[in-house]
Specification:
Blueprint (H helix, E strand, L loop, with lengths): L2 H22 L8 E6 L5 H7 L2 H12 L4 E6 L14 E4 L11 H16 L2 E5 L1 H9 L3 E4 L5 E9 L12 E8 L1 E5 L4 E6 L7 E4 L3 E4 L7 H10 L1 H4 L1 H10 L6 H13 L3 H5 L1
Helix pairs in contact: 1-9, 3-9, 4-5
Length: 272
């Protein structure tokens, strides 16, 4: 077998393994346990309809994989697992805070991210989580000169990772952010971007995956946020964001990517 055919074979074999794990589960007889690191609270008047941020992820990921189990840790209140291995992987939610804010709980969370990275423990970061991972691991996040990103944005993959579905390179996702990663974490690969957001999807090794967008948001929640921040984000951006909600976000597609990534054997699992 020549080098080209051997590389093609390995790519095919890896894709088949990801598909098999995604469809038949990564551990026989054992559900995946995901620890959700809660970094903000939903406004009280919206909780009844949308739930808290962990609830949004539990609904989305649980719909794609009903066998999943979840633990929620309110890291704003200093709540962390007694044992880092009491769950299989972690997910950091979005937040109205900025990762460069001088808040003790943010510094503590960055230390936890560094420990997860050191142990090669699986981690997914969403919006604030995406930015915090970069900031904690040698990158930089700051308020973007491009202003607010709201509503539905389209991001495009420039590199197709193994956990991708090998379908369209573009995907539609709801966003709500003014901060952006301007320097990536050490050894991070930029997988997807847009004209507005150059670092939309990033991966560090085989154990950290981050998205600037919000797969957990539904259009109704995005609408509420834009209404609430209308004066802050400005009328032209507000109107464009509202108009964008005519197109449905690809929530479940992104959820399947996240689950495929989490089920791929990482360095920590390989050495176990």
């Amino acid at each position: 077998m020549d080098r080209r055919n051997r590389a093609a074979y390995h790519d095919f074999f890896r894709a088949v393994m990801v598909w098999a794990v995604a469809n038949f589960g990564g551990r026989r007889g054992a559900a995946m346990k995901l620890g959700i690191l809660k970094t903000d609270a939903v406004r009280p008047e919206w909780v009844g309809e949308f739930g808290e941020y962990p609830d949004m992820f539990i609904r989305l990921l649980g719909k794609v994989d009903p066998t999943m189990e979840f633990r929620v840790y309110d890291v704003e209140e200093g709540e962390y697992p007694a044992d880092i291995d009491e769950v299989d992987a972690y997910l950091i939610t979005g937040s109205k805070s900025s990762v460069y804010d001088d808040k003790p709980w943010i510094a503590t969370l960055m230390d936890f991210v560094r420990e997860l990275d050191r142990r090669r423990k699986k981690l997914v970061g969403i919006c604030f989580g995406h930015q915090l991972v970069a900031h904690a691991l040698g990158g930089k996040t700051e308020k973007s000169t491009k202003g607010w990103g709201v509503g539905l944005h389209t991001h495009r993959f420039s590199e197709v990772p193994a956990w991708h579905d090998n379908e369209a390179a573009d995907f539609d996702i709801l966003v709500s952010h003014q901060d952006q990663v301007v320097r990536n974490a050490a050894n991070a690969r930029v997988l997807a971007s847009s004209e507005f957001c150059e670092n939309a999807v990033c991966q560090v090794g085989d154990h950290i995956l981050t998205f600037q967008g919000h797969p957990e948001f539904v259009p109704e929640y995005s609408r509420e946020i834009m209404e609430f921040r209308r004066k802050l984000i400005g009328e032209p951006v507000y109107r464009a964001g509202m108009d964008s909600l005519a197109v449905a976000p690809q929530q479940e597609r992104v959820a399947r990517w996240i689950l495929n990534f989490l089920r791929e054997p990482g360095a920590a699992q390989k050495s176990a």
